[in-house]
Task: structure prediction
Amino acid sequence: GVVLVMENDFEFEVATFRSDGTYSDGRHPDTVTFCDARGDALRRDFTINGMFYDPIKDKHFDYVGGEDDLKARLVRAIGNPFERFNEDRLRMIRAVRFACRFNFKIEDKTAEAIKKLYNKLLTVSKERIRDELRKTLTGPNPDTSIKMLDELNLLHEILPEVTAMKGVEQPENFHPEGDVFTHTLLTLTKLADGREVTDTSKERVSVSSSIDNKNISGSWELAMAVLLHDIGKPVTFEVSDRIRFNNHDSVGAKMAEKICERLRMSNAEKERITWLVKMHLYLRHAQEMRISKLKRLFAHEGYPELAELYKVDSLASTANLDDYNFCQNMFEELKEEEIKPEPLITGNDLIALGLKSGPIFSKILDAIKDEQLEQKITTKEDALKKAKELVAIESS
Result:
């Protein structure tokens, strides 16, 4: 077993050296036998993870050639790669994650084993695949990770909707970079390039409390939304006067929802990713929007992630950031109370006017909120007057 030891806010896992028996289920050893350090090293996944350090003697122990592979920047399975991956099939994705995290190469025999065992990946629980995918996409090189997963035949097993984007042409004047898959990889590159929180998002974390103290560009939900934002294009592809992908945002959002459910994501993760995919084109007409519409958007806790998605999507195509810059400048200029003001009236005020509770409530309150955001209504008295006018219109 493993004992967790706490010391000065640090966690240390203390484990006994052990050797594992066969893995009938491709995940858990049938038997465990206590052994020495050498035997323990031989059961581990990759040589770079099979080295030991004795802090008391200040001595390294390397029984598997990990130091040489570290210097050569190689991810190599310990011993027979087929045996290592059959012990735990998730190690195939882990190999990609380590290679991309450290800019290493996967050793040839290790890569060959992955290419032949890829179809065994689906025997791994969806939760474990999701967690490994999270670490991979929020790591330093998400674009390289997706490309490598594809080259090793793993991506189609995890996300066939993403591999379906390969070869899907786009209008060259909007997407000079190439097909939908190429665009998606480039969008991930731009995401990785910008993994620093913008000043805007730092200033307005109280409006977007769900990403407080969090690197927006490093958000798991944003990374998934970037990967999935155009998955609706292959199924909406049509050629008329030019190549078009009508409603690919809403179609893609429904597909993203199913993917989130398949990967056993939380409801909060699913809702955020789906919303981002559905809204990923929303800012392209921002300069024509009513101020009330913009303020409602800015008040949404997912706005900073949406802005980042729109930015990297734009940088990966035409590189036109006019709408993005307009929104960010507007976002900076507006005070928080202007974006998310206290409502001037509530449902209780409508009841006091003699109105019965029903669907009309939200219709009237939304209309008044829009005028409040437009600063056409600034007092409760004005709001009540407007409410009476709306009630009269609805009753006529």
